[in-house]
Amino acid sequence: MARVFMKGCEAIAEAAVRAGCRFFAGYPITPQNEIPEYFSRRLPEVGGTFVQGESEVASVNMVYGAASAGTRSMTSSSSPGIALKSEGISYCASARIPMVYANISRGGPGVGSIQPAQMDYYQATKASGNGGFEMMVFAPATVQEAVDMTYKAFDYADRDRNPVLILADGVIGTMMEPVVLPEMKSDEEVAAIKASKQSWACVGHALDYAHRSWIQPGQWSTVRMQEANEDAAALYASWEKEVQVEEYRLEDAELVMTAYGISARICKSSVDLLRAQGIKAGLIRPITLHPFPYKAYDHIDYSRVKAVLDVEMSIPAQFVTDVAAGVKDRCPIETCLCSGGNIMSRDKVLDAAKKIMEGK
């Protein structure tokens, strides 16, 4: 297929439409504004519905309703907007409603800055809302990956009847790159997907006891809630087979960098530059942040490696918590950090790597 030149946010929206998404509700916030803007133009062309809600809270609950009826549905926001959506996301997880959302993350905490950051790692992987629910979380490092992950996310959401998150930092969301777009699902395919959900979806007929007229966000007894949580835990455990990770030039590495998203992209080019200067560097890049590829860190030759360098656009570091769980004290872990909307530079990464190798 032909490649097209697209901005990350717009490419995410187009991938969702091609995957059969026919409902989007959202609210403006930088740097994700191009996602709802694109949907507002594109969805009417395919018989879909776009709504700009009066707030993030309203928007996520509109998605809850549309997805409850079996329609592939999506929302998006940036950092503090995602925090406002967290209750609705938790409701979808409790009621086993499939939905996809994207966080084009920015600096924080609080309102923070409008510039890119990676300060939502804990929010994305540890506490996306109350109640301890979990989601599959994908972290693209290119616009093409953002397209592919968004397209596939709807299949995961429908399979598991669970929310799925695309965690893309503001660099990925606002940069432009050539991408190959996936095939557009036909009207017949979209209808078949919706029809396949009718065993559980709302159809609006309260007296039709074969279907639900609404989907409750809780199991109104302690016994039923525990049973529901046990079922959810079994689902989460099954995701181990879905782990995705890139291991780059790891075989003889004496320094291993680890990062995700745009930071990993910067690290990958840094590995090649360091190699050209005689420093044997490698990279572990988690593609799924949840489930996390802990086992990839077992592939490090700890008799050879001087340190693992955690690179992330967050102060204090967050991603490093899972890195440490993978490394298991088998070597030192150093950090290379920036925060608040400052974008990681390759020179900063190279300087940190050289200082480790020089013992400074």
TrEMBL record:
Gene3D superfamilies per the UniProt record, alphabetical: 3.40.50.920, 3.40.50.970
The keyword Oxidoreductase appears for this protein: yes
Protein name: 3-methyl-2-oxobutanoate dehydrogenase subunit VorB
Limits of the Pyruvate flavodoxin/ferredoxin oxidoreductase pyrimidine binding domain: 14-230
InterPro entries: 2-oxoacid_oxidoreductase, PFOR_II, Pyrv_Fd/Flavodoxin_OxRdtase_N, THDP-binding, Transketo_C/PFOR_II
Single GO molecular function: oxidoreductase activity
Keyword flag Zinc: no
Record's signal peptide: none
Key words of the record: Oxidoreductase
Organism from which the protein derives: Lawsonibacter hominis
A Pfam family matched in the record: PFOR_II
Source species taxonomy: Bacteria, Bacillati, Bacillota, Clostridia, Eubacteriales
PANTHER family reported for this sequence: SUBUNIT OF PYRUVATE:FLAVODOXIN OXIDOREDUCTASE, SUBUNIT OF PYRUVATE:FLAVODOXIN OXIDOREDUCTASE-RELATED
All copies of domain Pyruvate:ferredoxin oxidoreductase core, residue ranges: 253-346
Domain of life the protein comes from: Bacteria
